[in-house]
Amino acid sequence: MIKMIAALLLLGSFLHSPCLNAEPLDGQAEADRLIYAATRAIDDAWDAFHQAALGGTLASPEIQTSVEKDLFKSRELLRAARHARHQGDIDKVKQLTTQIHEIVANIVYLSHLNKE
After folding, report:
1. pTM of the predicted model as reported, rounded to 2 decimal places
2. Please, which contacts does 79-87 make with residues 24 or more away whose CB atoms are closer than 8 Å?
3. Could you report the per-residue pLDDT of 90-99, keeping only the tens digit for each?
4. Element (H, E) at 109
5. Is the dihedral of CA 84, 89, 92, 97 positive or negative?
6. What is the end-to-end Cα distance of the chain in Å, rounded?
7. 32 in helix, strand or coil?
């Protein structure tokens, strides 16, 4: 339970970070910031999963499979967000990066669940 709260606090601190709340210079700059933050979040989620997998502390093989699928999905969403940025679709970038942050918050949470 404490680890779940920590993961939610991490997500909350990200959503209130100055990087996201700064006044954008233009839509492209805002999209660049959102994509950068999503990329970092995916990297952090991968690190959390990798440490748990190497340490043998993942709660179950099913969780490992689920996390691996979510990591793949988050990377696909990141590619789509980059494409949307190149198309100038800032709203789509916002939608996709929000999805990424929801997925990686779950990955971090699952990676911290202990074996029973």
Report:
1. 0.75
2. 81/31, 81/34, 81/35, 81/38, 82/35, 84/31, 85/28, 85/31, 85/32, 85/35
3. 999 999 999 9
4. helix 90-111
5. positive
6. 14
7. helix
Distant-in-sequence contacts of 48-52, Cβ < 8 A, 24+ apart: 48/107, 48/108, 48/111, 48/112, 49/107, 49/111, 51/111, 52/111, 52/112
The pLDDT, as a whole number, for residue 24 is 46
Token pair 């006044």 is found at 23
11, pLDDT greater than 70: no
Q: What angle do CA 91, 39, 67 make, to 5 degrees?
A: 105
List pLDDT tens digits, range 24-82.
457 889 999 999 999 999 999 999 999 988 888 888 889 999 999 999 999 999 999 99
